[in-house]
């Protein structure tokens, strides 16, 4: 049985960026660009008309900007939410906070490269959130106390502790590593890394990688990554 490709709408006021994104996405066997928009109003209209699986929305567009497009299409008041990944040249903290608060499924810098772009799309479809690694650590310094998963305090024991390997994976997630990068660092497959991430989410009772990273950051302040300090295995 053949799985239908992920349908993507690209919204950016720069034609060259739209063309570049389309070339990257359409080269993937599981992705297809179904539309383009050059401003915020057109992005909202196209998204409602075409019902793509994922929208890539630039922050700085004429009319409603990418943050407002995200709120309209993916926010809590959206009648039929669509997954939105915000892409931008600017990694300002307020952009990241607002994008995530408005329902974004990812936050990417345009210089992130093709591999991270396609992984962000796949992560969004899997219900995950991917943030460009270069902004993750700085973001978490401020995001941790704001996290929707703040009920897990740094000293609260977990019902089911993380294994040593899961603690290693959690730390790499907090560094903004992708599943492929985690696999390379730990000499495991990307699929195995993905399984570890899913198990960590379940144990921490968080919804996505942002929750894992925020929990890891909070616990790193007290030298903990779980009920006990992890032992490093060879």
Automatic annotation (TrEMBL):
It comes from the Bacteria. It holds the Pfam family Response_reg. InterPro entries: CheY-like_superfamily (IPR011006), NreC/VraR/RcsB-like_REC (IPR058245), Sig_transdc_resp-reg_C-effctor (IPR016032), Sig_transdc_resp-reg_receiver (IPR001789), Tscrpt_reg_LuxR_C (IPR000792), WalR-like (IPR039420). Residues 155-220 form the HTH luxR-type domain. The keyword Transcription regulation applies. Residues 7-125 form the Response regulatory domain. Keywords: DNA-binding, Phosphoprotein, Transcription, Transcription regulation. The modification 4-aspartylphosphate is found at residue 58. The keyword Transcription regulation applies. This is Response regulator transcription factor.
């Amino acid at each position: 049985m053949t799985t239908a490709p992920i349908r993507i709408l690209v919204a950016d006021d720069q034609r060259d960026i739209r063309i570049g994104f389309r070339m990257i996405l359409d080269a993937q066997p599981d992705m297809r660009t179904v539309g383009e928009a050059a401003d915020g109003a057109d992005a909202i209209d196209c998204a409602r008309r075409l019902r793509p699986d994922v929208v890539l929305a630039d922050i700085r567009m004429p009319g409603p900007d990418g943050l407002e497009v995200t709120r309209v299409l993916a926010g809590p008041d959206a009648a039929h939410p669509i997954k939105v990944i915000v892409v931008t040249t600017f990694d300002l903290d307020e952009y990241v906070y607002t994008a995530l608060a408005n329902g974004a499924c990812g936050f990417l810098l345009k210089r992130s490269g093709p591999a991270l772009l396609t992984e962000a799309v796949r992560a969004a479809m899997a219900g995950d959130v991917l943030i460009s690694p270069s902004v993750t650590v700085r973001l978490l310094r401020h995001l941790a106390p704001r996290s929707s998963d703040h009920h897990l305090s740094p000293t609260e024991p977990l019902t089911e502790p993380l294994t040593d390997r899961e603690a290693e994976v959690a730390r790499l997630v907090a560094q903004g590593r992708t599943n492929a990068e985690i696999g390379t660092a730990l000499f495991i497959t990307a699929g195995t890394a993905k399984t570890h991430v899913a198990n960590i989410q379940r144990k921490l009772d968080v919804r996505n990688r942002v929750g894992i990273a925020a929990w890891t950051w909070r616990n790193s302040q007290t030298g903990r990554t779980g009920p006990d300090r992890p032992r490093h295995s060879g």
